[in-house]
Fold this sequence. Notes:
5-stranded mixed β-sheet, 17 helices, alpha/beta, 5-stranded parallel β-sheet
Amino acid sequence: MSMVKLDLAKADAKYYSDEAKRAKALAIREELRQDKEDFTGWVNWPTELPAEWMSDMKRVADDVRSKCDKLIVIGIGGSYLGTAAVIEALGGSKPGCPEILYAGNNMSGHYLADFKAVVEDNEVCLCVVSKSGGTMESRLAFSVLKDWMYEKYGREETAKRIVAITDPKKGILREESDKEGYVTFEIPGNIGGRYSAFTPGIMFPLAVAGVDIDTFVKGAKDISLDEEFWQEGIKYAVTRHSLLEAGKQIEVFEYYDPSLRLIGEWCKQLFGESEGKEGKGLFPASLTFSTDLHSMGQFLQEGSQVFFETIFNVLKRDKDVTVPASAGADLAGKSLNEINAMAVRGVMAAHAKADIQMIKLDIEEISEYGLGQLLYFLMMTSAVTGKLMGIDPFNQPGVEDYKQEIRNLLGQ
C-alpha cells in the first residue's frame, strides 16, 4: 500500500501531461534500477540489504542503550540529516531510549563548547559517520569530543562507547577504528551520502532511538517495487522539470506540521546537491506553515513568481487538541488538526487565484513505514529529474572548491 499520493490538481496540466517526457522519466527509473552507474547502489538497496546487517545493528543498538542516555551522532549532510529528520518526525526517541544529539555539522567553537557543557553530566556514546574520516566539521567534533571522553572514561572505556560507520577498507576513520577497536558498520561504496537514508549511517542511530528500522526499510522496499504507483508518481519529476524549463527557479517545500521541519532540511540537501550544477537546477527552500505565512505569505501571494510550491500534507495524526469555548464560537469544539487541514485548503485556494503552481504530496500518516516510502520517493524523484536535466545527480564537484579554499587558508 502506498502511503504517498501525488496530487497535481493545482498545477497546470501542461506541466505534467507530456506523455513523451513521462515515458522518458519511466525509462530513466528503469535504467537506474539496473545499477550500472556509479553511486546508484541505493536504488535497489532496500530490497538487497543483508539481513545480518539489520540484526547486527539492532544488537549493537541494544548495547549502546545499556551504556548511555545520550548518543551523539557526529556527521554532516547526508551523514546525519536523514537520522535527524526521521527522529524529529516521529516525535523523538522512544521511551527508555537515549536522546540523539548531533555534532560535527558546523565549525563553531561556541556551539561545541556549549554542547560539551550540556552533556557533561550524562552517560554518553558516540556514533561517528564518515566514509573517509577527513570531512573537516566531523573530524573537528570527533577529536574534541573523543578527548573529552578520554578524560571522563579513560581511553579503553571510550573505545567501547564509539561506533564508527565508515568505508569498509580505507580512510582515516577506518584506520583508527581498526587500531582502537571501535565497533564498525560499513557505508556501501556505491551509495553517496545524500542517498544513504537506508544505510547503517542513518539506520543505526535510528535503531538506538527505538525506531523500527525493519518497518522503515519495508516502506522503502514496497514503494520501490510498486509499478502501479510509479505510473503516476513519476509525474512529480516530470512536473518539476517542466516548471524549470518554464522559468521557475525555486521549489518551496511547505509543511503544516512542524515535525516535518527537518524533512525540509533533508530535501534541501538532496535536491540542492543533486541538481545544482552546470548552471542548472531548482533552488530548494523550505517553509513551516502556518508560522512562515506571517513572514513569507505576502511574498508568496503577490511577489515575483520565480517559484512553485510542493506541499507535504499529512492526512492522519495520532494526537489532537479540541478548541475550548473561550476561543470563540467560530472555533469552539473544532479540533486543531481539523483547523490545520482547513488552512491547507484555504492557502492553496488563495495561491491558486494568484496562478501559483502547486504540487501536493498527501502522506497518509507519519510512521516508520510512511517515512520510508516518502524518503525513497523523494530520492528517486531527485535522481530522475537530474537525468531529465542532462546532469549527473550523483556527483558534487562544486563542493570541493570551497573546501580547497579553506584548506589553503589553514595551510597559510
